[in-house]
Design goal:
By secondary structure, the protein is α+β, with helices and mostly antiparallel strands. Helices cover 32% and strands 32% of the residues. The chain contains five helices and five strands. A five-stranded mixed β-sheet has the order 1-3-4-5-2. The protein is globular and about 35 Å long. It starts with 6 loop residues before the first strand and ends with a strand.
Length: 119
């Protein structure tokens, strides 16, 4: 039986460095991603290694939630809880959908919310 990996790698593009820095500073304790088979494997207690360029940070996953769409996500979380520099759910949704493949992955797998804690 193959053991489930405990460290998952989630990259940020250079243009999304501000979000990476929010996680590094501890101001952002919630990370959302459109689902995928790999992301659906992440469980509480696992580690996520975020990277941006050559820089890396690790956080432990406290909780994982799964929503089928943005309506469910924003019914459960205010935009500022997801990104402390954002207060407009419509703008966040537009940004999410600008990411390549995000809309299709959202339709297929929903959206995942990872509650993070420093190690």
């Amino acid at each position: 039986m193959k053991a489930r990996p405990l460290i998952h790698h989630l990259p940020f593009l250079a243009e999304h460095r501000p979000t990476f820095e929010l996680i590094r500073s501890g101001r952002k304790e919630i990370e959302t991603r459109a689902g995928s088979p790999a992301y659906l494997q992440i469980q509480p207690g696992d580690m996520i290694e975020f990277s941006c360029g050559t820089e890396k940070i690790r956080r432990r996953v406290k909780q994982v939630e799964h929503y089928k769409d943005f309506a469910g996500l924003f019914a459960a979380y205010a935009p500022q809880e997801i990104n402390p520099d954002q207060s407009d759910a419509a703008a966040m949704q537009k940004k999410y959908l600008s990411f390549p493949g995000y809309g299709q992955r959202l339709k297929e797998y929903g959206i995942l919310v990872f509650s993070l804690e420093e190690i």
